[in-house]
Amino acid sequence: MKFIAMADNHIRSNRPQFRKDDYFATVCRKLKQIVNLANKHKAHIICAGDFFDSIKVGHKVVNDVLDILKELRGKMYVTFGQHEMSFHTQDFSASPLETLIKSGKAIFLHLSGEELDDVILYGCSFGETPRNFNEDIRKTRILVIHKSITPEEPPFFLKDAISADDMMEKYEPYYDLIIAGDYHVPHHSGFLINCGPMMREKIDQTELQPCVWLIEAARGKLFDILPILLDIEPADAVFSLDLAKKADDSRFSEELGELVETLKNKEARPDFKQTVDLLATETKCSKGVVEKLNSIYGKVRSAQN
Hints:
Elements: E1 2-6, H1 23-40, E2 44-47, H2 59-69, E3 76-78, H3 96-102, E4 107-108, E5 114-116, E6 119-124, E7 140-146, E8 149-150, E9 162-163, H4 164-171, E10 177-181, E11 187-189, E12 192-194, E13 211-218, E14 221-229, H5 235-238, H6 241-264, H7 272-282, H8 287-304
């Protein structure tokens, strides 16, 4: 059995800042390419959340997506991401993804699982906790989850994220493969795939190469996890790079001016030691790094005295 795995399509009609192309037309071309890939490989599609960018996408967007999905010969299995949830709740009644499900063009994956011959797909939408098993299940078990999973240790500002290694260690007894969405950088290690986004929405994604993942599964094992790169235009063909640079330079000048004014005001001046100590705590610096920082502070105080 074959699958094409994707996530974070963020389908929308309005054009993101600094994109200069007909964005929705590009979105539709990407989705058609994925459907064509699924048909070519006789594969079902799996989407690990955030198929749509918002619950407020218009009827035309949903209708155009339905027209594209009519060409899919297999099935599409989905979980919900936070972008297609109403206030991040489990009320899906206002979600455009629910429209696809009720139309029969998508199948919602529950925690309880969906059986397909020798494979069981388990869905874990945003905010849910994956199911653990007590019983012996002699089928290939695939978890489809919308959760931020990073290739290395998560940065301190991603409070709810987990590293790929920690995720695999936690769920290795229960699943043969984990397909994840939410973190917008594609990566693959062991039995975990983080799909990455379908589109380059932001100016800092000009170097990103969107892809989908071709997976072949059989009873008790998995074969051939293969990334397939999606067609993209050169960055300068779809992004207003000059405009973005001007905006960045302007923003930098403004922020630099604010910093200078703050440093002039002794009362408002930030405490450098407190700032560095906070960063050291939040980033979980090693004991050696903390000792080095304290040594530097000591030398600075001595020089000042």
